[in-house]
């Protein structure tokens, strides 16, 4: 009889756009924007990320800066639709600079 602790969970299925094959370690590394219609997300497995120096989107500077900005403005009483506190303003500036560098 198998128990819950003795059976391993199956690896998640993913697709690597670099080696063009299935992967259990694929994560999103880029987003392709289009003028009309939906954009596309590109995924890479761990070996392809290492070989090509690809950074997962969640670890890219503009994504981390945006996450910090959102967390702050959600919890800050001084930040609203009408304006930002000093910290919120600095976090927004950091996000904008990181976003400009990502383009």
Question: Radius of gyration from the CA trace?
Answer: 19 Å
Largest sheet: 2 strands, antiparallel
Q: How many β-strand stretches?
A: 4
Overall shape: it is elongated
What is the percentage of strand-forming residues? 15-25%
In DSSP terms (H or I, runs of 4 or more residues), the helix count works out at 3
Terminal-residue CA separation:
55 Å
Order of helices and strands: EEEEHHH
Mean pLDDT: 82
A few lines on this structure:
With 103 residues, the protein is α+β, with helices and mostly antiparallel strands. Helices cover 38% and strands 17% of the residues. The mean pLDDT is 82.
3D structure, described in words:
The chain has 103 residues and is of the alpha+beta class. 38% of the residues lie in helices and 17% in strands. A two-stranded antiparallel sheet has the order 1-2. It has a two-stranded antiparallel ribbon with strand order 3-4.
Write the topology of this structure.
Blueprint: E1 14-16, E2 21-23, E3 27-32, E4 40-44, H1 46-52, H2 61-75, H3 86-102
Antiparallel strand pairs: 1-2, 3-4
Helix pairs in contact: 2-3
Could you name the key traits of this structure?
about 100 residues, single chain, 3 helices, two-stranded antiparallel ribbon, alpha+beta
């Amino acid at each position: 009889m198998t128990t819950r602790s003795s059976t391993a969970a199956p690896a998640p299925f993913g697709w690597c756009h670099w080696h063009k094959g299935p992967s259990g370690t694929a994560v999103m590394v880029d987003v392709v924007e289009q003028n009309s219609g939906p954009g596309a997300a590109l995924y890479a497995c761990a070996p392809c990320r290492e070989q090509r120096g690809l950074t997962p989107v969640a670890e890219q500077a503009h994504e981390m800066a945006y996450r910090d900005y959102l967390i702050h403005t959600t919890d800050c009483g001084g930040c609203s639709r009408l304006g930002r506190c000093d910290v919120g303003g600095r976090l927004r500036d950091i996000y904008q600079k990181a976003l400009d560098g990502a383009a």
